[in-house]
Amino acid sequence: MLSMAIIYSDHAIKRMKQRGITELDVEYVLEHPIYIKKSFEGRKVAAGQIKNKLIMVAFIEIEKKIIL
């Protein structure tokens, strides 16, 4: 999945800072999800585990890009 560029929205960056999640954490979850499920309005949610913590990454895939 990560052959695609990842674009972080201001909202995503704000939430990541609030939750102590790094870009490396997000990339790991996208590369090694426990599962990916469909969400609303074309979004998807990838779930992954890092250091015994479940991380959910909401994203949209558009034209070979992942937008958070």
> Structural class, from secondary structure content?
alpha+beta
Encode the helix/strand succession as letters. Answer: EHHEEEE
**Average pLDDT:** 91
The tally of beta strands, per DSSP, is 5
Q: Could you say which overall geometry the principal axes of the C-alpha atoms support?
A: globular
Explain what you see.
The protein is of the alpha+beta class and 68 residues long. It has two helices and five strands, in the order E-H-H-E-E-E-E. A five-stranded mixed sheet has the order 1-5-4-3-2. The chain is globular, with a radius of gyration of 11 Å. The two termini are 14 Å apart. The chain has one domain.
Structure characteristics:
68 residues; alpha+beta; 5-stranded mixed sheet; 2 helices; single chain; globular
